[in-house]
Structures are given as structure tokens and as C-alpha cells.
Design goal:
alpha+beta
Length: 276
């Protein structure tokens, strides 16, 4: 197998594994697990992100009408008391709804299942945080995802060129920069705007780690591109930039993301109060 073909295969594998890790470790990935009630095992998957203007559904499959449930919720980082909502049994599921929140609003919620004198908490001792957002057009989502995936693939492939006897960095480097710019600074802000009604929530206007890490990766790759013309040994710069992007992708998505400040909202009695 030719070396360059092997490099592309390795780059694809690293990209897929890194993207998967980032996806499943993020704070908006659904919480799944199992609990036992009177000897019956009940599986659950509970959302931590909800798009659109509707209330957020909460469902858990029991296939047993004798099992009753209750959802308790309150606004995240607020002084609210818990609101308790009984769940209804419908077609094998216990169902309830969490009230719709403005974009970047968060609720904290938990469930309690009971059958006779037996009770069990879902998902356990730690409640779930769910964030609300606006609908993102499918086209914007696909283009953003494709560009960011391409950037990771090209970045990794460019870094592997470090190990080639006669490396050819330039074309790969500028393709990496182009993909990263399109995904992170064109379709990324568009996604933010549709989801949270703001274009940018990183430095210097906020602390959104997703925006900040994208900016860091882009700056590092710009430095690597300059190194191709100025540095005596550009291999190290390119490999370093590729490693930085892998590290960036290993940081879970949406960490320190947009969040509505309910306490500030309550003080002002207004419709502002977002923290980034």
C-alpha cells in the first residue's frame, strides 16, 4: 500500500474516532441508563437539548400501567422551587412535558417512578440539565458539519505528512485553513444565530468554549502556514497544528456554551440576561 494512501486511511480513522468521542461526551448528548423497580428493569433515554418552539417531551417506556411517574423541574441556576408534574401513561410510555424556554434557557429536571410502596429516582442522585435552542435549518447544519469534518480530516492528513520523506504541505495546509474557516467562521456563526440568536459567543464577548477553541485552532494553523515560508523546519509547526486541532476536537462540544441568566432576568424583568 502506498504511503500516502495509508496516511489518508489513518487520518480518516482518527477523524471518525475523535468526532465520535466529542459527540458522546458533550453536555447535550442524551442521558441513557437503566433502573430497577420491583425487580423490573426499566431503560431510559432522556434529552439534554431541545430545539424549536414546543415544550420538551419527557418519555420513559414501562409497558406497565401500574407504574406511576412524576417529573420535577426548575430553571437552571435560579432560586425557583421545584415544580412537580405527574406523568401520564400512554401506549406503554409514561409521558410529560417540560415548558418551553427562550433560546439558551436551561431547565434542571428529574423523574421519580413508583409502584406500590417502591420508588426509584431517574437518573439517580444527579438531575439532568436540558438546554433549549431555536431550530437550525438542515442545510446549515449539514454544511457546518461537513466543513468541520473536512477540516479535521485534512488537518490530520497534513500532520501525517510530517512523516513523509518528501512532504508536500502547502496544498493540504491551505485546504485545511479553508475548511476550518468555512465551517468555523461562516456556518458556525450561522448555526449560533439560528440556535441562540447571536453570531459569536467566544472571546472577547463571551466564554463559549466551542467558539474559542475554533478560534485557537484557526490561529495555530495560520501560524503553521506562515512557517511554511519562514521557518527552517516547518514540519514541526505543521505537526504541532494538527495535534492542537485533535486536542480541540477532544474537548466536548457545547461546553461552557450559551446560557440564559435567569437571576438577571428576574432582576430586570426583561427578556435579556444571556451569558456566554
Amino acid at each position: 500500500m502506498k504511503q500516502r494512501v495509508l496516511f489518508w486511511i489513518l487520518a480518516a480513522l482518527i477523524t471518525i474516532l475523535t468526532a465520535y468521542y466529542q459527540r458522546v461526551t458533550g453536555p447535550t448528548y442524551p442521558v441513557s441508563g437503566k433502573v430497577s423497580l420491583n425487580g423490573q428493569t426499566i431503560s431510559y433515554t432522556l434529552d439534554r437539548s431541545h430545539p424549536g418552539p414546543a415544550n420538551a417531551p419527557v418519555k420513559i417506556k414501562t409497558d406497565d400501567a401500574s407504574i406511576h411517574g412524576e417529573v420535577s423541574w426548575k430553571r437552571y441556576r435560579s432560586d425557583d422551587e421545584w415544580t412537580r408534574v405527574p406523568m401520564k401513561y400512554e401506549d406503554g410510555f409514561l409521558v410529560a412535558e417540560l415548558p418551553h424556554q427562550p433560546p439558551a434557557g436551561k431547565l434542571i429536571y428529574k423523574l421519580e417512578l413508583r409502584q406500590g410502596d417502591q420508588r426509584v429516582s431517574v437518573p439517580g442522585s444527579d438531575p439532568i440539565v436540558i438546554r433549549f435552542r431555536g431550530d437550525v435549518p438542515v442545510a446549515s447544519f449539514i454544511l457546518h458539519l461537513a466543513a468541520m469534518f473536512a477540516a479535521m480530516l485534512l488537518s490530520t492528513r497534513t500532520g501525517l505528512e510530517h512523516f513523509s520523506k518528501e512532504p508536500k504541505f502547502k496544498k493540504l495546509t491551505f485546504w485545511t485553513l479553508g475548511s476550518l474557516f468555512v465551517g468555523g467562521f461562516i456556518f458556525g456563526p450561522a448555526m449560533q444565530y439560528y440556535a441562540f440568536d447571536t453570531w459569536w459567543t467566544g472571546w472577547p464577548v463571551g466564554t463559549d468554549l466551542t467558539d474559542n477553541k475554533t478560534a485557537v485552532a484557526f490561529i495555530v494553523w495560520i501560524i503553521a502556514a506562515f512557517a511554511l515560508y519562514k521557518a527552517k523546519n516547518p514540519r514541526r509547526w505543521v505537526l504541532g497544528a494538527a495535534i492542537v486541532l485533535i486536542v480541540v476536537y477532544l474537548i466536548p462540544h457545547s461546553v461552557l456554551g450559551s446560557e440564559l441568566d435567569y437571576k438577571e432576568l428576574d432582576k430586570q424583568g426583561a427578556t435579556t440576561g444571556r451569558t456566554q
